[in-house]
Amino acid sequence: MPTLPMHRLSKLAPYFLSVLRIFAAGSFLTHGTMKLFSWPAPFEYPLNPMLYTAGILEVVGGLLLLMGLFSRPTAFLLSGLMAFAYFIAHSSNSFFPVLNHGEAAMLYCFIFLYISAAGPGVWSFDASRAQSRVG
Length: 135
Known about the structure:
Radius of gyration: 17 Å
Keywords: Cell membrane, Membrane, Transmembrane, Transmembrane helix
Protein name: DoxX family protein
Structural class: mainly alpha
Low-confidence stretches: none
Helix content: over 70%
Membrane topology: Multi-pass membrane protein
Largest sheet: none
Shape: globular
InterPro entries: DoxX, DoxX-like_oxidoreductase
Pfam family, one: DoxX
Number of domains: 1
Number of strands: 0
Distance between the termini: 42 Å
Mean pLDDT: 94
């Protein structure tokens, strides 16, 4: 079975980064739409000001990341939101994410932190804007 040389796979990294950003943002967005719009299902808990604020950040930030617009600052802000959510809502129950149900918050935190450093990838409005400034 032929294998792809690693240098060929590395050429795909900007595209894989875009796919990661799009799928993570789309999934993240639904957490906010559940809180604010009861879609795709109603949120399980009553909204307090902290959850309402998180819902707004999840919807607005999720949409911006989905489009790849202002990706680095948005991803950095959302990474902090997820770190805050992990420590406020999950870590007090157990040290282990699998036991405290904080795996999603932890993964979103580090995915968004990576996007804030690496950028949105080639399929983004940010990349289009940067290219139009150069060319």
